Amino acid sequence: MLRAALKSLLGRKVRLLMSTFAIVLGVAFVAGTLVFSDTLNRSFTALFASTVGDVVVRPEGAVNPMGDLSTLTVPAEVAADLERVDGAARVDGNVNATNVVVLDEDDKVVGGFGPPSLGSNWTGAPAGHGLEGLVMTEGRVPDGPEEVALDAGTAEKAGYVVGDTVTLNTAGATATLEPTLVGIADFREGGSLNGATLTIFDTATAQELFLDGADAYSDLWVTAEDGVSQEELRDRVEAELPDGLEAVTGDDAADEAASDLLEAISFLTTFLLIFAGIALVVGAFLIVNTFSILVAQRSRELALLRALGASKRQVLGSVQLEALVLGLLGATLGLGLGVLLAIGLRAVFAQVGLDLSGQSLIFAPRTVLAAYAIGVLVTMAAALLPALRTTRIAPVQALRDDVVLPESSIQRRLQVGVVLVLAGLVSLFAGLGDVVEVPHGGWFVGAGVLAILLGVAAASPVISRPFLVLARVTFARLFGTVGNLAGQNSLRNPRRTTATASALMIGLTLACTMAIVGDSAKASVDKSIEDNFVGDYVVSNVVAGSFSPEVAERMRAVDGVVQVVRQRYTGGTIDGEPQGVVGIDADGAEFLELTAAAGDVTALREGTVLLQETYADDEDLQVGDDLEIEMPAGDQRWEVVGIYEDNPVLFFPIVTTVDTLLATGAQDKDNALIIDVDPASPGVGDRLEEAIADLPIVTVKDQAEFAEEQRAPIDQFVLLIFALLALALVIAVLGIVNTLALSVIERTREVGLLRAIGLSRRQLRWMITLESVVIAVLGAVLGVLLGTFFGIVLMYALRDEGLEVISVPTGQLAVFLALSVLIGVLAAVLPARRAARLDVLRAIATE
């Protein structure tokens, strides 16, 4: 039996090639994602290990929950005291800053669209465990306010060499700097900053720029003497520290920084693995269909094996053995392709700033195990149902020309499909609805969508029959006998037709859902901006960061400007959970047209807050209550003086004054400016642009431009989703090609007879093309209907999240349907060509 199974597999290697390819693509996506995520993890772990000392001394609350540095510092005298600690070889003070943006020679931003733009002083201190950190590989260390050094990657991207004048935009009091580049720093033994930019000053200049000239540091590195562990040195250092400072080992500081960042970007891995799962589900449909056809074609062969003494278990095992070999082959090829995919992902993310070129790819054992486990298990599971059918083939029955499964099996599929759809609806609404609170609602939504898709796929032979009948009648009228034959062939085996269409249905369902989500999100953004946009212009950072308070002063000085209201974003902690806070000018509430739901929104002053109505209800807070929040400078109690109706203009639900935020350790930086101008003063917009002409990181936008800017990320996200779903659609197209190709082989004698009675090659090709179009359009119709349902339900569930408008892009859905016809025509090219080239006499003689 083993020999027979292997010979059978080798005899049909061409037929199984595309099924293998489906597994290859799914496994490659999983393997590539795992390799990329492991590389990402190792890269950041190595980076942070080389950017901390043996012991790090820092203020408690040095970084707020939003990831921003606070204004808390370590006094310089602490560094002098720690130099006397037993076991301390040296103590170095670091001045750290963010939003120090490098502009290239054409005044274009270098980096900044993901990885941070960092600034620091130069100390030359070794990293923890004696590791060598950045060193000056070219030029020298900067000395004085007119000199600067850059990391090698940034200098290369910007096109700067030693001696050039570097243009910098900062979020500090001085918005623009133009020092001379005197040095280039790099990791001598390899490594990179993963796309971040680093601008290096001397210590006095950094203190002047980023600490208002204070004789202090953002943190201290204490280097251990030989033989002294990080833990021992930390304990000795901690004993010498004043209140408000803490000492942590370099290993702990590196792990903390790396884990926080990796947790923040872990959605990338999850995101990619979800689409790998979609590809595998679609691939499973292809495998089920392929094995179903092959089992039917081999009915005589399997019956002969039974007649020769093979048991049902042996026949079942032979089919599963073929699936095992197929799975092993697909997993092996998928692993190789996965490495190439990981290289591609690394290149793609390098284009948006996350440069991992300094880190070699990490090929962990879990990647190999996952690839083979998925490849083998998915293939064998998909082949199980067709394999089980072999045990129901009686030897005498199978010796006939055809084996037709009883209609009762289709009725059972309908029953199973209905149960799955009902269960999926319950799970979907449990995850999206607010009637019953369920943990991890996203998993319920995913399980519900999958159950509904599988349920529709199971029931599709019955529910799609009216469509197939209509297609036959339509084709017969339009294309005569050829169309009638194509329609009858689609109806001949509705299970096969609908199973092939189901693979395309899944891809288009998700594509239509995302099209509705994207269009609704953009429509909601437009409505929100139209209803709530105040002022005439908005000023913001092009890289979604902060900018210098000098910008606000420049805007106030522009002729025709009536009022400028600042917005600043920072974060605190409430009951252990991070919470964003907005700071505005004390008189800004009235200008922002906040509508009071309770209290007086114009009563905002230092030490008080306004709360969004929904947030206040959720936290059971009322006017007169105190809001307790932990900020970098310590615990705060702010009086609630007003509750305002939900307003999307304010990014977070807690609003206080700019001065209140400054007192809690927030940096003196703005995130947005809202500007009101005199309508009688022409050309104000041009003058505003001129005021920030030297600051490419800052933009001025009117209402239409602001709305366009808010829509841009939605378009990019939806485009990314479509690109990833293209993998599932490619597999679905392969499924149609495979099904048609196997169908041609199965109907070889029939094709020969049709040719013998006068059907031309052109008519034969057209018949198979029409069969392919039926499959593609059926999948598209089911996909569009389900996608529209999922999209509307999802947007209805998100109506309380600010997405109030449900918009169905009918034009885009029509394009999907039109593309399905094109897919059908293209998928039929190879099978139709093969059929047309069959020798008539040999085809008639085929058994």
Structural account:
It is built from 27 helices and 26 strands. The protein is an alpha+beta fold and 847 residues long. The strands form five sheets. Strands 17, 18, 19, 20, 21, 22, 23, 24, 25 and 26 form a ten-stranded mixed β-sheet that branches. Strand 18 and strand 19 form a beta hairpin. The two termini are 23 Å apart. About 1% of the residues have low confidence.
**How much helicity do the residues have?**
55-70%
What's the number of structural domains? 4
Strand content: 15-25%
Mean pLDDT over the residues: 83
Shape: elongated
Question: Strand tally, please?
Answer: 26
Number of helices: 27
Instruction: Give me the Rg, rounded.
Output: 33 Å
Head-to-tail CA distance between termini: 23 Å
The largest pleated sheet is described as: 10 strands, mixed
* Class from helix and strand fractions: alpha+beta
Low-pLDDT sequence parts: 403-408
Question: What descriptors fit this protein?
Answer:
847 residues, single chain, alpha+beta
